[in-house]
Amino acid sequence: MAVPEAPADPADPARDPRPDAGRTGAPVRIVIENCAVATVDARDTEYASGHVVVAGNRIESVGPGPAPADLPGVIRRVDGTGHLLTPGLVNTHHHFYQWLTRGLAQDADLFDWLVALYPIWARIDEPMVYEAARGSLAMMARGGVTTAMDHHYVFPHGAGDLFGAEIRAARELGVRFSPTRGSMDLGTAQGGLPPDFAVETTEAALTATESAIDAHHDPSFDSMLRVGVAPCSPFSVSTELLRDAATLARRKGVRLHTHGSETVQEEQFCKETFGMAPTEYFESTGWLGDDVWMAHCVHLGDADIAAFARTGTGVAHCPSSNARLAAGTARVPDLLRAGVPVGLGVDGTASNESGELHTELRTALLVHRIAGGPDALGARQALRMGTYGGAQVLGRGAEIGSLEPGKLADLVLWRLDGIGHSTIADPVAALVLGAPAPITLSLVNGVPVVEDGRLTTADEEAIARAAGEQARRLARIAAT
Fold it and tell me: CA-to-CA distance for 392 and 103, rounded, in angstroms?
């Protein structure tokens, strides 16, 4: 087996891609000043006009007014007048491969949608997943995502290194990445929904998951790559796989992820098959805990919310996908009041065709006000879910998700003085309630990945062309 590359130390000047990095012997610094700053720290500290100093890949200082003029090693000063600086957005649930099957099964609920799409997804291969990952990551990065997550669980026989393909794409684009090695072991022959040649045996899934962790997982503070364990859902995996995957993850010290309580049909399935509701079933298999987060969690009762709060289990809230598939509205305000960690997720782009996370800030706020009234969710709560809440859910709250000295330099400078936002006095409200804000600068690990609304690490037109070619190729193969 090939020996995996040692994770690069982004703080090492020899590995720093910025001009003149390390040549003076002092830390290289980027200064952003004269902008509104929403730190999203524990006190929700904000500055009407403030600054952030980045040294290497860390935030060195945050405060009001301009930065000191005599800082050594400054390679760039950014005048943020008319802008808002926030932590980078953190996506907590996605399926990159679905970038190739957007716009299909437009009027279906989850189960009918899965029945329509599984036969297509069962034909994916490594080139398709690579281009789908590039498309998904590029779209999110252009919209302020600095940490992406993916849940890949479709592994057709002989399809190549699908997990490695998306890791390669994230590395190339420079996005911090939390891929989860998913799995399914219930094909149609065992009463599941996916075709038999798109699922694995229980043993094969566990073996491949452990190999993925051994090859790719980097637990360091600065890590650009954290791997998780993620059997797909209660109706596509066996109880044995679910239970043994939890044991494996804890033995390896990595996090656990799955879909949970997404639809009424799932609740009925669990009661009929296991004699208990989804949350009870998850707890019986070791799937509640502060190292676990679940996608959707739309249909939770009071006892379920109490169990999540008691165990520290996190939630990835995907409002657009839940609306697209008519799954319902998660009880997010109740989850937040109970102290449950909640982040935002794009979900797969076959059920959220935009593929963007920054628009989920607004969608979440609007959806919950429809259900719960004008004070159900505020703009700052939405921003917190999209930043620090997501970091908590991924187990990285000490490293990312807020603008604080010592944290990793993942941050976004949003332009708010243009036609879409200039008359909204509150910059956080402008970002959350207004039109999608242009991005002047996005840093991941202290390195620019977006400048003036364009990716710095990849050719967007080339990504669009290649993804389109692979989508058409998949459609041709699936039609045969």
Answer: 32
Half-sphere exposure of 183 (CA within 13 A, CB side): 29
- 117 closest CA partner among 87, 95, 91: 95
Q: Tokens representing 445? A: 């690990």
Task: List Cα–Cα distances, 7 to 116, 126, 151, 220, 385, in angstroms.
Answer: 40, 23, 22, 9, 29
The predicted pLDDT at position 11 comes to 40
Task: Render pLDDT for 202-228 as a digit per residue (tens, 0 to 9).
Answer: 999 999 999 999 999 999 999 999 999
Helices and strands, number each (H, E), in the chain: 15, 17
- Look over the chain and give the mean of its residue pLDDT values, rounded to a whole number: 94
DSSP letter string, 146-190 = EEEEEEE----TT---HHHHHHHHHHHHT-EEEEEEEE----GGG
- Which residues, 6+ apart, have CB-to-CB distance to 26 below 8 Å? 72, 73
Residue 8's contacts (CB-CB under 8 Å, 6 or more residues apart) are 15, 224
Report the SS3 class of residue 281. helix
Q: Which two tokens stand for residue 408?
A: 């990793």
Looking at residue 142, its amino acid is R
Query: Cα angle at 140 between 344 and 50, to 5 degrees?
Result: 80
The 10 Å Cβ neighbour count of residue 423 is: 8
How far, in Å, CA of 184 to CA of 92, rounded? 20
Residue 329's nearest CA partner among 289, 363, 380 is: 363
Q: How far is CA 139 from each of CA 128, 421, 455, 462, rounded to the nearest angstrom? A: 17, 22, 9, 13
What is the percent of the chain with per-residue pLDDT over 70, rounded to a whole number?
95
Which residue has 């000191």 as its token pair?
68
Determine contact, residues 190/235, Cβ cutoff 8 Å.
no
In one-letter notation, the amino acid at residue 463 is I
pLDDT digits (tens, 9 = 90+) for 157-202: 999 999 999 999 999 999 999 999 999 999 988 888 788 888 999 9
| Size (the chain), residues | 480
> What percentage of the chain reaches a pLDDT higher than 90?
91
Residue 238, pLDDT > 50, answer: yes
Token code pair at residue 402? 């807020």
Amino acid 474: pLDDT: 98
Q: What is the DSSP string of 380-397?
A: HHHHHIIIIIHHHHTT-T
* Contact (Cβ atoms closer than 8 angstroms) between residue 153 and residue 184: yes
For residues 420 and 418, what is the distance between their CA atoms, to the nearest angstrom? 6
